Amino acid sequence: MKNKALITGVFRKDKSDKKGYIIANLDTGLIEKIVFDEIPPENFTGEIINYEENYTICSGDFNCHSHPEQSIYTDIIDKSWDLGTWCRNTIYKYSVKLQPEHVYLGCLRAFSRMLTLGVTSVMVSFYCHGNKKNLLDREVIRAAEDVGIRLYFGRMNYDIINEDAYEGKKASQKTYYETPEEAEINFMMLSGEACSNNVVVAPSLHSIHASTKEAIIKGINLAFEYGKYIQFHLSEDKGDVDLSLKLYGLRPIEFLESLLKKNEIKSLGHVILSDCVWIDDNERDIIKKYNMKVVLNPRMNNRIKTGEADLRKLLDKDIPLYLGTDGEASNDDLSITGERNFLKNRYTDINSDTIDSIGTTPLAFNNGFIGNIDVNNFCDLKVLNKDGNIKDVFVGGKKVVEDGNLITMDMQKDIEAPLKKSLNKLFIF
C-alpha cells in the first residue's frame, strides 16, 4: 500500500455530511474505496491523513469553461467594458504578440489561483495558436502539469476571418486561423503527446461566428471518433443567433440538430454548449432530447453584458449543467463557489442545494470520472474549515494546497514575479 493514501474525516456526499475514510491509489489518482461509519484499517502502510471533525472534505470543483491565458489581462481591464470593448482592448490588441512565456506564465497564474479556490479540474478552450501549430498549446498543458491541476484541454478550431473587421481584430483572427484539416492534424499530434492521467486533449470549436459549417461537422465527428467531449460557445450573444439565422435559416441549436438529421454528424450526446444565453424553448427541448450538456458562465455574462441564461427553464428540463468562469479578466475571480453564490443571490427562489449540485454530475476523464466523491472517481478534494474557507486541496490523492497556500510552486517567486516582468514588455507600461 506504499503508493496509496488513506484520508479520514467528515465527507460531504449526497448533500449530507458523513464521517468515514477513503483509500486513494496515488499511481492512478482514483478512489479505490470509500467507507462510512467504520474505523479505518490499523494495518494500512501508505500515507495517512486525518482531519478533525471541524473540517469538511468535499469533492473538488470542476471549472467547465476557461481561457486561462487571459489572466495576463487582469491588470489592464476596465470592469465596465461590454463584450466588444473588452475584446478590442485585450485579445484583439495583444494576442498577435503572445509568446510561449506569456501563455505559460499566464496559465500558471490562472491554474494556481483556481487550486487555492478549490478548483481541481478545468476544461480549457484554447484558440490562441499564433500560427505556431501546437507551440503555444503545449505551454498551457505544461503549466497545468507543473502546478498540478487536472486539465481537459480543448484545442479550438477557428477558421473564419472577418475581412471587414477593424485591423486589430482581423490581425488576431489570422493568428487563430486554421483549416479544419490543419486543426485535425494538430489535435492528433498534441493528443499523441499527452500521456498523463491528469491531461485529456480534445477537439474544440469556437462559435458560429468563428467556425464554418465544415469545421463544426469535422470537429463534432472527430471528437465522437476519439471518445471526447467537444465544447464551443453557442448563443453567447444575440449576434450569434442572428448570424445563424442568416447563414443557415435556423437558430444555432436547431442548426446542430439539422446536421444530425442529415447524417452529417454522428452524435450530439458528447457536445458541451457554453453560455446558451439566447436560446428559446425549442432549443432547450433539443438539448434535452440529445443529452447535450450546458456550461453556464453567469458572472462573466453579467460582467460583459451579454445577457443571462434562464436557469429555471434549464433546471425544469433536467439538462445536465456545469459551471465555468471564462477568463479571469472577464470575471471577479476563478472560483466556482463564486459562480454558485452569484446564482444563489440571483435566484433566491431556487433551493440552494439545487444550485450547489450544478457541476457535480460525473464527467468521464481518461480512465475515471470527475465531479463527486465515489469509487473509480478521481480523488480530487477540497477541505474546508468551519468558516467554509479552503484549508487543503488534493488532486489524485496528492496534496497541492496546504493551509490555503499552493505547495507545488511558489506563487510569488515562480509565477507573479516573472509574469510581471514579461508583461511589462508586452503591455509597455
From TrEMBL:
Q: Which domain of life is it from?
A: Bacteria
Does this UniProt record's set of keywords contain Lyase? no
User: Where's the Amidohydrolase-related domain?
Assistant: 60-400
State whether keyword Hydrolase applies: yes
Name the EC number(s). Answer: 3.8.1.8
**UniProt entry keywords in alphabetical sequence:** Hydrolase
InterPro entries listed in its UniProt record: Amidohydro-rel (IPR006680), Metal_Hydrolase (IPR032466), MTA/SAH_deaminase (IPR050287)
GO MF = atrazine chlorohydrolase activity
Q: What is this protein called?
A: Atrazine chlorohydrolase
